[in-house]
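Assemble and predict.
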Amino acid sequence: MKRRTLIQSAIATGTVATLSPSAWANETELNIIDTNVSLSRWPFRRLPLDDTQQLAAKLRKLGITTALAGSFEGILQRDISSVNDRLVSECAGFSELIPVGSINPNLHGWEDNLKQCIGDHAMRGIRLHPNYHGYELNNPRFLKLLNLAADAKLFVQIAAVFEDVRTQPDQLRVADVDLTPLIENHVGRIQILNWRPRGELVEKLASIPNIHFDVSRVDQTNGVAAMLKTIPESRVMFGTHAPFLIPEASLIRVHESDLPDSSLSLLMNKNAKTFLTG
Amino acid sequence: MSDHDGTSFGLPSAEQLKSDLIWDSYFLPSYRDFEGDMKRSQRAIEIGNIEKLCYFAHVGIGTTTDAAFEKSRRETPDLISAPLKRWPEKLLGMIHLNANDVSASLDALNHWIRDGQMLGVYFAGGGPGSLPCTHKNFNPLIERIAELKAVIMQHTWHVTGGKTSPGHSLPSELAELAARFPEQQFICAHAGGEWEKGICAVRDSPNILVETSGFDATAGFIEMAMRELGPERIVFGSHLPSRSLGTELGKIVGANIPDEARKLILGGNFRRLLRRE
């Protein structure tokens, strides 16, 4: 068949694939917990959902009933106390948003910031940005922070990446966080965010029971299913990295991974619930 | 009370997806395991209701580093079109050209497009067949492609820190090439990856469309492309299976755009390019 005939034939027939029935009845019954959203403004671009009202509405529309919310402001700003104040205040208007404080252990007074998170704000966890804040995961202050957080029963989220290094602004480039030191230093409940698991490190981190993961940047069409073959499924949690990333992306990716119902329930809700309560 | 909108895990209804008539301009099964990657992509193709997917065939003119593979395609050309025969209702094909071998590429154009079923060409951003698209070798190739009314997909990435290989092309370089051939349409694969720069680089080139795959589902991309280029200059690509339906279809269905624009992006524009008279 010649090219033009082929095109005309294809267009005329408009062949449509058959939709396979979904394995899941309804995601609203899952009470989806998103472990990875951020509030306020991404410093380098306005995002369609960077208004909390709009973000919360979108999450609700997608069946996400709870979200752990950090702050974009915590990445570059140095008045961390006010960053966390604003985050708590913003979350107060939305019952589904749980504030996750920023801490930068390279700033003087970080221990006071942590005390505020624990005492004043009664937070359940903190989020770290080691690459933007300029420390390695074998830094003594980081180790001290992990211990203090564990003593206070806070979970610790480590954003291994925030933006693909290939698309970062020329004058503000940060490498992905080297997670290797976590193999030795891993006190308390830790979740790694935005990581794309690869290489031998995955298996090493997968063998450490208190280290958890999210799926926000896991890619390849079977990426989530493949991840759950390497990492115990009790330690992988749903996350969208919204509003930086489009929240539908992570949800659809879970859908295409075609997980059994039991795995789905763990990923979308139960693991995060356990992680939150310690 | 739930505000849940009835979508299924972020996907619109099957009825909507079917009515969108989705044609994927950038399907990427491995040449080493085409069948396996078709199988791996099956679930995504089904739940995304993707009607057709366009892949890029290596035709034995030195576009891979696999000598045995190249030899097998030269000796048994039927292997090249075998996927089109195996999945005739599902697949469309374009061919990789080797910008370093103009003569072999011209022969391939005649064999696979003039006399065969292939619909266009792919210029890679790396590997032995690649050159920056401003190179003079592109001139005779584009002239012939234009005569054949074929589609051109040019890989582009604007990588922070600079080019990653000698054959790497930038959106701005594609704009330079497109200015030499104003009657020919070009697809800027991956919108340059760093799409804010990519969109700006091709904005004033009306004969360039941007393809949507190949980078994270960063929010705001489609909205900016709509604003700067218009819906007629955006073409959906899935990048399956090395990327996901979530990342790639999510960019389009998660964007706040009118229904008509979504239909153009998901298939209408690509179909328009394919049936150019």
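Residues 196 and 223 of chain A are 9 Å apart (CA to CA).
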